[in-house]
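User: Reviewer 2 asked us to show a designed sequence for the structure in our supplementary figure. I'm pasting the structure tokens here. Could you produce the per-position amino acids so we can include them in the response letter?
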């Protein structure tokens, strides 16, 4: 029994009746074959249609390899003899706009730069063609885009048909496909003629607009990403909203956003420079204050200080500067969620600061830490200001015990 692909002759019918001629399973899903269908199966780089048969959603449509039947895969079993099919028109129109737009854009790149299309990809996220020239001169993409949109604005008729072998021999196809059997040819008002099995709009004006979004070099090829019609409008809307948001944030017109950003970047750089200078001065000042407050009563000076939630790297910097003084022991603890203990001394003293560290960390009930005899650190567990003070005292006691 016939398995007619009605979409070849008519891309616009979305509602139709049909007989079920086979109920089967395909790719693990319940599936049916109909005597005629307007559902487009995945082929030629164009994704399949979606929709319903009666009330059952059609999740995928494919051409069966062994007999060429169009198989409608379903979200549920469908045991009936007759069905009413309804195709998702928004998705179909999107494919029609892009497929027709692709023919025009491919021809435009040939006419503007002799750049031939060697690949085509269409998915919900992106639509691209690959050109056989990786380096196009400046302005070529805009020129091809202008030409393509001129063809859209001229609202040329689009014709798809199966020519006889005699007629086919007289046609100048953009690219001759190496397939056996009858070829379907799509002619776009004399601008482009090519073999294609996809669905297309009837007049180029229905494409609305063809917009190139970006080009990207891919080895010896150039990938051109573009949008047509409704998807181009959505893309424009998203980008326009984003620009308006940025304009409002920067209190400037969208033309001046790059200037504003450059100014912000420069300001940020000089502020960072200033901040580094000030922080350095502040830390030097702090080192002096800590040194003054040290216990100078013993043979060696002792600097002991608790910090509340301070950056460990910054405290390490303070400690390193302090132990540059001869005969100096420095013990610092940072209280907080990840408490930290540092035990250090100048090179001229004999104490093992790892032993002092371990004694201090034992107060917090942990052993995570170590270092050199002159500089050790550890921590990582929560500790209060009180606990931090206790750890310092335990570390000092460890040093005192080696003195006596
Ligand atoms: Zn096509």
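Assistant: Here is a per-position design you can include in the supplement:
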């Amino acid at each position: 029994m016939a398995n007619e692909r009605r979409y070849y002759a008519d891309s616009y019918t979305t509602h139709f009746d049909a007989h079920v001629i086979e109920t089967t399973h395909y790719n693990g899903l319940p599936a049916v074959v109909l005597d005629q269908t307007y559902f487009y199966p995945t082929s030629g780089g164009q994704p399949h249609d979606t929709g319903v048969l009666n009330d059952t959603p059609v999740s995928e449509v494919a051409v069966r390899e062994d007999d060429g039947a169009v198989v409608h895969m379903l979200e549920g079993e469908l045991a009936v003899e007759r069905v009413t099919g309804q195709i998702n028109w928004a998705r179909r129109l999107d494919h029609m706009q892009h497929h027709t737009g692709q023919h025009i854009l491919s021809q435009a790149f040939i006419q503007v730069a002799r750049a031939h299309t060697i690949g085509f990809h269409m998915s919900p996220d992106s639509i691209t063609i690959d050109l056989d020239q990786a380096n196009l001169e400046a302005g070529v993409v805009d020129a091809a885009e202008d030409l393509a949109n001129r063809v859209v604005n001229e609202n040329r008729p689009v014709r798809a048909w199966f020519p006889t072998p005699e007629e086919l021999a007289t046609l100048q196809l953009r690219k001759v496909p190496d397939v056996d059997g009858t070829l379907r040819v799509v002619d776009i008002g004399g601008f482009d003629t090519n073999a294609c099995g996809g669905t297309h709009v009837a007049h180029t004006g229905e494409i609305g607009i063809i917009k190139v979004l970006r080009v990207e070099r891919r080895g010896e090829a150039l990938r051109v990403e573009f949008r047509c019609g409704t998807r181009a409008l959505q893309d424009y809307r998203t980008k326009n909203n984003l620009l308006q948001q940025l304009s409002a944030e920067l209190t400037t017109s969208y033309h001046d956003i790059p200037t504003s950003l450059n100014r912000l970047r420069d300001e940020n750089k000089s502020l960072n420079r200033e901040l580094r200078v000030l922080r350095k001065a502040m830390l030097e000042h702090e080192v002096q204050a800590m040194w003054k407050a040290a216990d100078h009563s013993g043979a060696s000076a002792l600097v002991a200080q608790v910090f509340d939630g301070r950056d460990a790297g910054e405290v390490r910097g303070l400690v390193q500067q302090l132990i540059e003084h001869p005969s100096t022991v420095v013990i610092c603890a940072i209280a907080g969620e990840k408490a930290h203990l540092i035990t250090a001394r100048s090179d001229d003293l004999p104490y093992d600061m790892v032993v002092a560290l371990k004694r201090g960390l034992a107060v917090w009930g942990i052993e995570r830490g170590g270092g050199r005899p002159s500089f050790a650190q550890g921590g990582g567990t929560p500790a209060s200001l009180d606990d931090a003070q206790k750890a310092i005292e335990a570390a000092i006691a460890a040093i005192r015990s080696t003195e006596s």
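For the response letter, you might also mention the following. The chain is about 35% helix and 30% strand. The first helix runs from residue 89 to 113.
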